[in-house]
Amino acid sequence: MLASPITFTHDVTERLLRYVVIDTQSDPASPTCPSTEKQKNLGRLLASELQAMGLADAHLDEHGYVYATIPATTEKKVPVICFCSHMDTSPDCTGANVKPQIVKNYRGGDIVLPADPTQVIRFADHPALAGQIGHDIITTDGTTLLGADNKAGLAEIMDAARFLIQNPHIKHGTIKILFTPDEEIGRGVDKVDLKKLGADFAYTMDGESAGHIEDETFSADGATVTIEGVSTHPGFAKGKMEHAIKIAAAIIDRLPKDTCSPETTEGKEGFLHPIGISGALEKAAIGFIVRDFTGEGLQQKEALLEDIVKDVMKDYPRSTYRMEVKPQYRNMKQVIDRHPETVEYAIEAIKRAGLTPVRSSIRGGTDGSRLSFMGLPCPNIFAGEHAFHSRLEWVSRQDMEKAAETIVHLAIIWEERA
Question: Is 401 a catalytic residue?
Fold first, then answer.
């Protein structure tokens, strides 16, 4: 531990309020990188703010990524650590014209959002609020999402960067900053230049409750079932027509009702989840996402899906199907477990920030999932965001400040242990 405690100053809330009003919603239908040019508006602001702090190499590249380097303040040879957050917000809920509000000194109870009183952050539905008494809670007005996922992470990294630059007596190694586009649509590291980044280990700041460190994610595949039916004139179709849309509907109807779906699973349980159906009489397609914490679990769910399809197709002998499975990302625990210090140091940093560390798993993925398998081991640290992808999204000022302090302590610990 340091001989004397650190006196922190923060501007994380002001940064968040500045960032959330910039619309950065990503678009899964777009083939470009970034998927929406408006993400670069925030990227340009972040690069400019980093340059104003004195980070001469801070820049936004043509693909919408922001890179910057905080130089080392120690003579020791310390592994290069990167802190990463994504700039885009979810396509699930509009991120245009965000109007944030602050509920100061929250005293408990429901939070009614002012522009749409039907939007209520209910105490009973958000158990995390029980730990927020006395905190300042940032929400929207109820007409948009907030964008704390993951602009809270951006603000925390920027706050920590400012603090470290203004306090050069704090010893740390070289620190890299990476802000990515398109994480919400699964393409957050498609165009990242790891050679240019030059980091040995990384941390995404994209978790939920204060104190949490996550070293495990779902493994994920996408599956598409394409049905080729039999088309004929509906006036003369008896005994001839085999309707591709009805076949697809029968497949969906045969999916398990009480298990293996997002709405019936929790913890370490995976699921098989239809996300779209399209087509016409002659041809239809169903898109699925498949999630589990193990490769074996993925294979079992994909085998279950194909068994269901085959069983349905018995009733349509002249129709055919094709099932394609594409890997999306894998459980980063496979990589993180080979570098236990990444998690050990994060746990110590969370303790030094005055919080109780909670090691947990993500029922989803992060940029860190793919970065880990690209050679950059990357656990996920809390950013404080809650109810993300919805108009009920909220985050605590105090939790964001603790996340920024955790970043600073992590930088110190890597230097101490070098």
Answer: no
